[in-house]
Amino acid sequence: MRRLGVVLATALGAGYWPIAPGTAGSDVGALVYLATMRWPLAWQAALILAVALVGTWAGGVAARHFGREDPGQVVIDEVAGQLVTFFATGISHQGVVVGFLVFRVFDIVKPWPARQFERFPGGAGIMADDLMAGLYANLLLRIGMAVFPVAW
Question: Is 115 strand, coil or helix?
């Protein structure tokens, strides 16, 4: 089970990318969104829930495996955060680039309360801040779509 946890936590190995593994994990999240963007919203919500739950477990397993609270190799949280970023926006392929960048900014800056969520124990702390960053990014995308209704 430890091996499975590490494989899932690293998003099938994307977390081993030598430069900016979090960005590699976000790439995986954007690709998963593009593959599932036409799914019914209920299925997309179920996917987010499944990735968040499995990722919380896997993140905890991987943290113990790597001997650190939030190892850089764990990027399943970025996958979940990207899925939250795009959830129910109907954003097109072109808009994915904007959403990707907005999520990365929120993931790095971690505005309140995202940074505080990192203090949760184990995999919950790994996952929660990225879910919050995804929520912020989703809201900003919605504002952008309302203000600039073209090219999304």
Answer: helix
Burial 82-111 (b: 16+ CB within 10 A, else e): bbbbbbebebeeebbebbbebbbebbeebe
Helices (H), ranges, 67-121 = 76-86, 93-109, 114-117
What does each of the 152 residues of the chain score in pLDDT, given as a tens digit?
Answer: 889 999 999 999 999 999 999 999 999 999 999 999 999 999 999 999 999 999 999 999 999 999 888 888 999 999 999 999 999 999 988 899 999 999 999 999 999 998 888 889 888 999 999 999 999 999 999 999 999 887 66
| Domain segments of the chain as ranges | 2-147
CB of 33 closer than 8 Å to CB of 84:
no
**What's the Cα-to-Cα distance from 26 to each of 19, 42, 67, 85, 140, rounded to whole Å?**
13, 22, 23, 11, 17
Give residue 124's Cα distance to chain centre: 13
